[in-house]
Each structure stands twice: as C-alpha cells, then as structure tokens.
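Hey,
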Amino acid sequence: QAQLVESGGGLVQAGGSLRLSCVASGRTFGSRTMGWFRQAPGKGREFVSAVKGSGGSSYYADSAKGRFTISRDNVKNTVYLQMNSLKPEDTAVYYCAARGVYFTISYDYNRYSYWGQGTQVTVSS
C-alpha cells in the first residue's frame, strides 16, 4: 500500500523556479523507484524524471535535463522535483508515481503502481 500526496505547484513566471514535493505513506518508500510525470492539456502523460529507491541513480527526459533535479529523502518519505529555468511549455499537471517494491527505473507510466492526485504548474510568458 502506498498513498502519495503532492504539493508545490502554482503559477510562476518564465525563468523562475519551483520545487514539487511528494510525501508517501507506507513502510517501503526506500525500496521503490519514484517518478515524476506531467500531462499538458490535450496531450498524453509524459515522463519527466525518476530516481531509484536508494537515490543513487536518476534519469531525466531530454526536456528536463539541465533544468530539473530529482531527489529524495527516505527518512521523510518524500521525493522532490526542483525545477529551474521554467518555460511556458513546462505548464502541465505534474504527477508523482511509485513503482512496486525493488522495481527499477522505467519511462513507461504503465509500470508505476501508485499515483498522486497531481499538482498544477503554470508558467506564464
């Protein structure tokens, strides 16, 4: 069982920064790969970033490389997405997701078992 609660979304100006947080309930957070996905209006769900349970390996979509940083605190059961140099095209609902215990990085949203409610990120021009 895992329940994810996201926060940190909002309205920011282009070039600004935002940090998303996702707090997970449950006892197995440190054994789960965590991912961030986003979905813009009229578009499909897009992989943004993921980090393995230990925090030792992380991956980014090309659109996120150099601007976004994923991290996690396994004591606090929290995964973060630091977003810098935000662009209007980053506007989307951002979702936190968890894989099954000990499963590795995946770019496919169908591989993730648990999802947060989503948090809206809007970047103005």
